[in-house]
Every structure is written in C-alpha cells, then in structure tokens.
Automatic annotation (TrEMBL):
Protein name (database record): Rhomboid family intramembrane serine protease
Span list, region Disordered: 244-264
Keywords: Hydrolase, Membrane, Protease, Transmembrane, Transmembrane helix
One cellular-component annotation, GO: membrane
Source organism of the structure: Hymenobacter oligotrophus
Length: 296
C-alpha cells in the first residue's frame, strides 16, 4: 500500500482523530521542508519566510487582524525537527489516554481549545506586559500550547496513571504534567517568553476543561458543532446520529452534555471482567464507562 493510500485511509477511518492530528502536523512539516529546499535551490529562499508568515501567528494585533486564520494554523506548523518530534510524541502518549477515556471528538476539542487559549495568552502577554512589549511582532508557531493542554488534561483526568520513562522507571503522569508546567514557567526568562506563556495557557485550558467536564459542562461542544457543520458541507448533508440509551443512563447523562453515568448493572459486569481477566482486557467503551462511573 502506498504512502498516499495510507494517508487517505487515515482520514476515511472513523474514530481515528489522534492519528489524523498527528498526520496533519507531519504533512504540514514535510511540505514546508520540501518547499524550503526547492525555494533555496531556486535562489528565492526569502519566499519561504513569506509562506511561513501566512501560517505563524503574529503577536501584534494589526498583523493578526490581517491574518486571523493563524490562530489555528500556527498549532499545526513546525519549523524544526526536534520541535515537531517532541510535540508529536507527547501528543501520542497523552492523547491516547484522553481518546481512550473521553473519545475522539473531545480529544480534538481539547487540542483546538488549547491552541486558541494558548494563542490568547500569547497575544495578551506581548500587548499587556510591559517587559515583553519590545518583542511585539514576534510570531509563534508549533503545537506546544495545544499539546500542553492534552498533557494537563490527561493528568487531571487520571493523575495516578503511570508511564515508564527511560532511565527513570514508572512515573505518575501528574508529576510529568507538573514538570512540563514548571519548565514553561522557568522558560519565561529565556529567549521565547511568549511561547512559554502560550504553553501555560494550554495548561490552564486542559485543567479547566476536565474540571468542567466532570461537573457536567462540556466546553468543547461549540468545537464539535462547528466540526459537524463543516462535515455536513463537505458531504452535502448533515450527519445523522442515532444513540441508544437505557432509561437509567439517559437520566444520569442529562447534566448539560457532561459524562453520562452508565447503569450499575453494566459496571458490575465490567468489574467482574477485571477480576477475571485484568484491566487490560477491557474494551475502549468499557474503560470509558468505568471512568464515568468513578465520577459519581
């Protein structure tokens, strides 16, 4: 199967949002790398900077008003191999947890909202903080703000879940998230203060998103609605979804789009399965139901 067929399959499969986010970031990076090489060989290397300015988000408001789409495109644009490598690794590791427990749509919502809040923090910092005003006009690119939102959200959702880190061993992800936040705070004194502040914006969004979701408020519903509207335009008709629920689950899930509570009978069956075969034997749907039950 060709690379193009693999990419096409990635975007035609349902429930594949994490891979789609990864592929979009990698494709944009690869296209920019090829474009930069071609422009350099054509002796018009300066044109690459012109292209990059159409994707990176500026910090000055007049330029941002002329390029409003950059509040999102910057979060899919990278200009360095290690930059995209670490961002995509973190997105994959922590995004798998968010996707497994909350589903694909909420993962996408979290990524988009993290990018938007990170952009807001970035712009406000350069326009309102006096010490940063000399750097006004500096652009920002990279998925770090959105990825930080995913990291903090996963740690808020499952604080005691452990990752096995090379040379360190098992570490609870709440400590990994805390380290990421501390590194961003320390980086404000460095050469990229606005970018580090954008990371903190993503961290705030990740925490608030999960906190509100556990209270029954899904902050990502507008993002999901826009996505469904775009999907309807692309396919020429709105997507119709049929959901089957038991009366108990329907009543428990009535809290303003929050996490619907599964009936106790289903939870008992899931717990029996864990006692027989272990937690890893659970399906994605069963893990999501078990998590929702823990929020009672």
């Amino acid at each position: 199967m060709s690379i193009f067929a693999d990419i096409q399959q990635t975007f035609t499969r349902r429930d594949n949002a994490l891979n789609q986010l990864l592929v979009i970031n990698v494709l944009v990076f690869a296209l920019l790398v090829v474009m930069r090489a071609v422009l350099h060989l054509s002796s018009v290397g300066d044109a690459y900077e012109v292209v990059l300015r159409q994707l990176a988000m500026p910090s000055d408001l007049p330029n941002l008003i002329r390029h409003p789409w950059t509040v999102l495109t910057y979060a899919f644009t990278h200009d360095g191999f290690f930059h995209i490598l670490f961002n995509m690794l973190n997105l994959y590791w922590f995004g798998m947890l968010v996707r497994e427990y909350l589903g694909d749509r909420r993962l996408v919502s979290l990524y988009i909202l993290g990018a938007l809040v990170g952009a807001l923090f970035f712009v406000l910092s350069y326009n309102l903080v006096p010490v940063l005003r000399p750097g006004l006009g500096v652009p920002m690119l990279g998925a770090s703000g959105a990825v930080t939102a995913v990291i903090v959200a996963a740690a808020t959702l499952l604080p005691d879940y452990t990752f096995s880190l090379l040379l360190i061993g098992p570490v609870r992800i709440k400590y990994i998230a805390a380290a990421v936040v501390l590194i961003s705070i320390a980086g404000i004194n460095g050469t990229n203060p606005g970018g580090q502040i954008a990371h903190l914006g993503g961290a705030v969004l990740g925490f608030v998103y999960i906190n509100q979701l556990q209270r029954g408020r899904d902050l990502g519903r507008p993002v999901i609605a826009v996505g469904e509207w775009i999907n309807g335009l692309l396919h020429g008709r709105p997507r119709l979804r049929v959901t089957h629920r038991s009366p108990q689950a329907n009543a428990a899930g009535s809290k303003r789009g929050g996490l619907a509570q599964p009936p106790q009978e289903e939870i008992d069956l899931i717990l029996d399965k864990i006692s027989r075969s272990g937690y890893e034997s659970l399906s994605k749907d069963e893990k999501q139901k078990l998590f929702r039950a823990s929020q009672k």
